[in-house]
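Deliverable D4.2, example record:
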Amino acid sequence: MRTFALFLVLLATAVLLPAHWAAADEVVMWPGDPWPVNKPLPSSEYTFFNLDRESFSIAWFVLGDLEDGGALFCNVFITNMGVGDKNATVDMTWIDSQGKDHFVRGEFKPDTLKTAGDKFEVIVGDNYIGGTYPDFRLKISEGNLSADLKLTARLAGWRPNSGYVYFSRDKQDYYAICIPMPCGDLTGTITLDGKVHQVKGRCYMDHSPVTMLPHKYADRWQTLRSLGGEYTINYLEFRVPPKYGSQLATWLLVGKGDRVLFATTNVTLSPSDWETDQQTGKKKPQTVGFKASDGGYSIQGTVTVDHQMEYINILSKLSFVERTVASLFAKSHIWRYRSNVGATLTMPDGTQVNIKQDGISEILYVGD
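Output generated by the structure prediction step:
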């Protein structure tokens, strides 16, 4: 998902959604044939499209892992929920080299949105995301914070099979994801209160169309983006609510340099060393084991929290009215960490490689 900033704007707009819910009778995870690794996704996979459905939303999420130890999280989000179609929200967090958190958010009416049909180009007010593989651009300008960033893909895009998890037989209720850029190089500027900061690092981008409210299809998320070393290791797992059997939807991708070695939905995460957050009562794993295999490759490793980069109480980002109503059905929290990654990668010929690098991991809870 997450892009996880997706949840913030979903909760903000969902307060106006009518109480209608199509009955869902099963979960079908990632159906379809595997997407070939090292075959770039066509732009049609991640351009804007709109469904005539009030619960439809679509988002582009960018994560930047900066060389100075900071990080960037940005979400461009468009929804049909609320009054009128194609309302938009843009939010960005910049964690600077000193670990200080800077957050901005802009809300936009439909007349501020411009898209380019079959091209990947989305303009919302003074904000822009788009490009043609392997070169993308992100420009954000909200309040006292702006960014002008060039994103150049190192790895070809990928999706887990069809990219969809369906929650109804008619396939109208779903979460979907594709990853146009599992790992890329980021260069550009971030400007805070008029002061320009040159930044560079690695980056990740995904794209998520969704036709459901967050608490309807997931109650806990875990992610890793480990981009800064010789290898790329990305994974995502979300747990569907108990009404669907608390099943786990997972995927993992491993790359080296400019090539994806393998990507799969055959993944097992093993969270441990649980710590209870005193403010929320939520349990957060300080260690997550992971293992996966596909195409003769296998990987087994551990992600260990080094330090917390950011905590977000999503409801605190909403207006008083939005917060009051949204709190009746979902209280959501995100923790983002700088983490240490250690893994053993086994090649098809049996050769083993030990990997040690850092990454950014997240855990998110949706609902009580």
